[in-house]
Amino acid sequence: MFTLTERSLYVADLDLWIDSLRPRARCYVSHGHSDHAHEHDTIVTTPANAKICRSRFARSAVRAKQTTPPRRPPPACDFEEHAFNEPWSDGEHTLTLFPAGHVLGSAQLLIEGERGRFVYTGDFKLARSYTCESPEVKRCDVLLMECTFGRPHYVFPSRDEVEDAVVAFATRALEDGCAPIFYAYSLGKAQEAIAILGKAGVPVTVHGAIDAMARVYRTAGVQLPSYERYDAAAYDGTRALIWPPSATQPKALRNKPSRSVVLTGWAVDKNAAFRYGADAAIPLSDHADYAQLLRYVELAQPRKVLLNHGWRDFVWRLRRLGIDATFLAANEQLALF
Prior knowledge:
By secondary structure, the protein is α/β, with parallel strands linked by helices. 25% of the residues lie in helices and 26% in strands. Strands 6-5-4-3-2-1-20 form a seven-stranded mixed beta sheet. A seven-stranded mixed beta sheet has the order 7-8-9-10-11-18-19, covered by helices on one side. It has a six-stranded parallel beta sheet with strand order 14-13-15-12-16-17. Helix 1 packs antiparallel against helix 4. The chain starts with a strand and ends with a strand.
């Protein structure tokens, strides 16, 4: 049996939580984004994601000590690390982690037992990238997947078109004497932007948090183009600047002309740039678009599809295609098969 509680999945047969938002004794963490990665007594994950989590948790502990009044830092986590496609036994079940293609170290979870094969995707994409592992799809009986972009108009341009748009934005801004600012999450999207711009020969400067994560990527074996870490005193606006959307605006640009663009799958929406407070939006996403979601189901060939994050009406779109689909509700208990 498994239970969905407060957006967290619990597999009772394994006494294992999946991407839980609350501290647990043992939890599988699919990747390092803060809406999935939290401190637990034991974290089941890939070696690359373990590096990312250690770095993020350490930075969070430092920030906690700097708050007033000071908060107690979180307890140290133990990491149970498993490489991609190296199965291990857990009681009567066999578990396997395999690449999700979302960010570095992101993994899907396959659970096999006498009742069949169950796959939890977590966040994933099928499109190629420069900075994370190539995604895989495994056949299964039950598929629990995200559907962030589960509506038909969320179909992204080709990867080549997206890369051309990123480079063109930077090039035009620099030619016009404006500093190009790319808003991108410090984990995943920012490293892709570094790779895209660096490959095109565009000089890059990055926020400190992005630099910290890029260093983790390098220790995990990802080769990134050279860049500079942002220094307000040194930055002169002649380099593309990659910046977290939530960070304070760079002081160096207060008296310099600039143009901003947000890198997000939501760029497909016409009001995306306005919503993010940017001049433009480019659909560089680390999630699957609508076509990729359908393609994943086609390749996995499950008898049952479960959804727990994204548009609820994606259920009806799958059902119209003859697919047995259900959107999980909190506190719902279901048999695996």
